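Exercise (ungraded).
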Amino acid sequence: MSLEFKKVVIAVLGLLFLSSLVLVQKLELDRRRVEARLDPEPVVVPAASRQCVTCHGEATPGLVDHWKGSKHAHKGVGCVECHQAEEGDADGFDHYGARIAAIVTPRDCGRCHPDEAQEFAASHHARGGNILASLDNLLAEQVEGSRVPMSPHSPTPGREEGSDAIGDAVNGLASAQVGCKQCHGSKVALLTTSGRSISVDDLKPDAHGQPTNRAPLADLERSEAGMPLFDPGTWPNTGIGRINLDGSLGSCSACHSRHDFSARRARQPENCGKCHLGPDHPQKEIYEESKHGVAFRDLKDAMNLDADHWVLGKDYSQAPTCATCHMSGNTRNGGKVTHDPGERISWTNRPPVSLVMDTDNKREVIKEIDPSRRAELLADGGEPWQEKRQRMQDVCLHCHTPDYVTNFYKQYDDFVVLFNEKFAKPGQAIMKALRDQKLLTPADFDEQVEWTWYYLWHHEGRRARHGASMMAPDYAHWHGMYEVADRFYMHLVPEVREIVERAAADGKKAEADAAARVLDEILARPEHRWSRPQ
Amino acid sequence: MHPTAPSADLEAAHAGLPRRRFLATVSTTAMTAALLSSYGTFAAMAARFLLPARERRTAWMLVSDVAAFRRGTTRTLVAPAGERIVVARHGDASDPAAAALDDFVALSSTCPHLGCQVRFEPQNHRFFCPCHNGTFDPEGRATGGPPFEAGQSLPRYELRIDRGLLFIRVPLEGVA
Amino acid sequence: MGRLAAGLRERLPVNRARLRELTNEPVPHHLKHWWFCLGGTPLYLFVVMVATGILLAFYYEASPGRAWESVRFVSEQASYGWFLRSIHRWAATLMVAAVVLHQMRVFFTGAYRRPREFNWVIGMGLLVLTLLAGFTGYSLVYEQLSFWGATVAANLTENVPLLGVMLRRFLLGGDSYNEHTLSRFFVLHGAVIPVAIVVLLTLHVALIRLHGITELRFRTERPGTPRFFDFFPDHLLTELLIGLVLMIVLCTLASVLPVPLGPRADPLSTPEVIKPEWFFYVAFRWLKLFSERTAFLSLGAILLAMTLWPFVDGSIRKRRPDSEASVVVGIAAVLAILGLTVWEASVAH
């Protein structure tokens, strides 16, 4: 290499060096812009999902925009990463080169978020679908709707013919599907060409979520694109206890709405308030009445809701939200979030008579009355309610002194016990007496007293207890115990008396007397004596 | 002593030819320019690295209730970043609650000459710097010593009065 | 102008002819082969390390409470901090690689043979110092692996015969990792080792100048090829060229693969996998194959053998002048080192 040539090479290399430094400067300026939050964090579209984003960006632009605003997008978690389906999955289908499924279940989310999925699966939220076997279901499906085939009363003008026709049958389950199940979760079902819908009950999935009984899959009804069609009564649905085709329970998007899966939103009370509101469990309204809610509304903007870590006492302390007390981390528990809100609850106020949350090794509430049997169940991998209360108190103690917290819990306990002893247990005993003496028809909700008792414990009694638990005096009292008392004295007692009188008149004297005795014994107690005619 | 390479001879032989000399000059110039510009840019980046961002955050800090601050007195306070500040209130012995911002002055205790701490001498009605005998009037203007010769004064801080309370604007960062 | 020059010459009485003679060393023609420039490469990278190291030291704070935070400041807030830190780290990697390649080149071309044995020993010293610089440097970042790696290494030094315990206490500034440890590592990394490298480097280059570069001839050379060429400007330009190539490589690496900052050291929580820097993988794997003391002492013996190899080779060749034993041993050693390094790199434990 001649000297001149060498010098020229050096000149060229020097320019290359200079241009690489220019690139470095550009990187530095970009870094400063992101640091100064002038640029939003970049969206990373993984290669496998590029086609999805392009096509769906035109077909469903809002969906893609939501995703672009999510943390998933910043970290390169795209469409395929969540929607991918295995070969054997019941609802999987081929879509432009990728095998996907429309529904993303907690099993899918749990691939990257195993701890959260596990905690959630053990929680009562995941069992929200159990309502399908309860009294509430009866109300929605039979009382409000129809469990037997129902024909229309008369044709609907404008929808007599064509594919839009209302047709011969009315969907008697519509109220349950649009109401209860949208919060509690449906049992996801696929349509078959024979008209039947198949769900987990037919598919019997194994531990990996794949169906062991593959016969029903042979005649699935599919769209033109090959996608299995869902029974419209079961999908769309993001109920928190949804029973999925792969056997997993629940829906993460119930709280982490898709497609931005915002943690910020999940931290705010309005998120929980989608389901935790209304006459039978007005937690949202109760929170808004309470001082906690008032403080939150005022100081929301300073509470670091966007932060990666949201630990009470460290990242914020202005006010608690639902998440703060029931799930989020705080400085007393190492900042650890739990996706099982039941871990911090000491009373369950859901049943007619509140129970303490002693749980057995299957995390079910112990209903045993016998103390030694209870102790046995607790010792065998169970957990006493006191431990759960301690976890909740760890949150309270961030802002309140121990004496304050102890006294509050005494107030709360006293209220629950008062409700239990004055109204709940007596009411339960009275209704049991009526049923035992066969003074009621076998069907539920066909008699006034059944509705009365239902209102007393399921609506008014619950709101009273919830109001006490979260410091909302108006819900505890006027919307609560006052209405309970009114219901009990002005409705339940007179209705029971009427039933007893009519039974006696109908010739069932012995049964009527037995029932009346139960009622009289209750009303003879000191706390009820004021109500009896002097 | 080893014989030198022939390249030097070649160069010498061709030194006379104008085209070769032109190419040699061009290549040398290009090389030098490229080297200087590229390493120079690197050095500029290193220099920028060593100069941290200039922002110095400030905040308002409470000094005193105006009514409690007697006229003709001074108070010394220490800013969050550690510097000592002398706040003085002038004026006669009339109603101390009648607050006018002009009555107050907040001066740094750091002498602008070489950075020593000045002291207020009420008996001499002046600020005195012990290092080189610099003196300043109560408004902070230099009256003697090296600061006077350099036409310097004590640095001032911004003050404000809000509902009978006196506030001073102080920088927040420092060594403390 | 002439008076200025005359004035300078009076105050700096350098004999220009003598200076030129001293510095314009004739460079043997074989250095026109690029892979003979592997000696200049680590030297250039050392200069880069010192320059970037000095810049970083403006912000680094050598106390356990502040170290990681100061590195974070450099990486995330200081202008071009991420860039300079990445250059520093990548240049370290490249420098170790270059030193090793250079040593291999010297070995396989037999340039360590009589009378150049001392230079080989000095070179070994430079290798050890470079590796120590890499180790101490990484310990300063106070990431999890910095802390635990330093703890493990300090514990290993106990195996040095006689002096082990004292050496460990010296390294840590106490009986265990404490508030003095980081300052020690900083002084070692920023002052003691660089000064030692400069001293050894000076001796290394001086010895080269004194001996002259070993003349080598290649069978493929054309006849009539000049045997030497000038250092100025020829070889200097070559070195400049290499320097630029290295800068471009470093800038590219720093931009495309910037150095991340791992989680802060937690003395109460040992990570699942502790590994030293890559250039220590071979030693780490060796230590796992035998008991601690055996492995440590055998490593010492191997290092000693490497250092004294020119003399060993000399005595072998005294008996059998055509012996290729060194080459064979060299190839075996390279393969072993590569094998152990790759083995350690591919497994977690």
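Further reading is listed at the end of the chapter. For now, observe: The longest strand of chain B covers residues 58-65. The longest helix of chain B spans residues 18-50.
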